[in-house]
Predict the 3D structure of the following.
Amino acid sequence: MADTKQQVKAAEEKMTFAIEYLDEQLAHIRAGKANPKILDGIKVMYYGSPVPLTNVASVNTPDAKTIIITPWEKPLIKDIEKAIMNSEIGITPENNGEIIRLGIPPLTEAVSYTHLRAHETPEHLVCRLLLEKKKQTQKKKKKKK
């Protein structure tokens, strides 16, 4: 009995970690709404060392379609802009000399499809195909009723 409880506890811990990981990965997906998490992987050169963007600037979302980056040191604007341009987020920054503004474009079906498929692993592919098959089966059952 104690062995079963230990196995259940270990499985619960692993599931908790899996859910946390999934939440973090889903937060990085560009879904047409401004989310500062899409900038988490961006490193800026700061005195010769790459540091996370959030260590050299504040990142805010004043509305659902805009991200505002305010550097703590004005000379860093060019470095931040360069880091964003070199990243894979696919958004061109607008620099007014004091802040950097990122306008989040609405996603088209093609952009959303290619973005999600580009980051898909074989495990994700299997899950996606199973879910699509399940949806098709449910639609067929509804039509029969």
In short: The CA atoms of residues 40 and 130 lie 31 Å apart. The longest helix spans residues 2-27.
